[in-house]
Amino acid sequence: MSLLDNLPLISAVTATLAAQVLKVILVLLTERRWAFDRMLETGGMPSSHSATVTALAITIGMVEGFDSTIFALAIVFAGIVMYDASGIRRAAGMHAQLINDLVQELAHLFDEGFQPTALKTLLGHTYPQVIVGSVLGGVTGLLIAL
């Protein structure tokens, strides 16, 4: 079996790419601008993390059986990734935004030459972003496994 025959891998990669392309399209539709940099960024709608792990789990279930040990592993892994994306990473992004706001508010206290770099704030996902990502991943997984 070659790497190109590995349906779970193909499914996961396809779901990731689809989610990242959708991010660019959604920015184009909502903000009327091209944002190709969104292809390589985390956060935003839809969650590519959720799409990836859901596609992986669904395809593993379709290929190996939903009663297999590897499917159980994939489902637990998907749950942890989605929980992390909507909880811990989202909170880290909110903390980064607060720190950026504080730095901007206190900018007059910094030395002339020192300019702190803004922290990245788009790290995690809202629940709707995770849900849409997992639906995208589920559909991708089903389509590839059929």
Description:
The chain has about 150 residues and is an all-alpha fold. It has one domain (about 5-85, about 125-145). The chain has 5 helices and no strands. The protein has helices at about 5-30, 50-65, 70-85, 90-105, 125-145. The longest helix is centred in the N-terminal third of the chain and has 25 residues, at about 5-30.
How much beta, percentage-wise? under 5%
Shape type: elongated
By DSSP (H or I, 4+ residues per run), the number of helices equals 5
Number of discrete domains: 1
Largest sheet: none
Q: Please provide the ordered H/E string of secondary-structure elements.
A: HHHHH
Contiguous runs where pLDDT drops below 50 for at least 5 residues: none
- Helix content range: 55-70%
Distance linking N and C termini: 18 Å
Q: How big is the Rg?
A: 19 Å
Please tell me the overall pLDDT: 86
Give the helix/strand class: mainly alpha
Q: How many strand elements?
A: 0
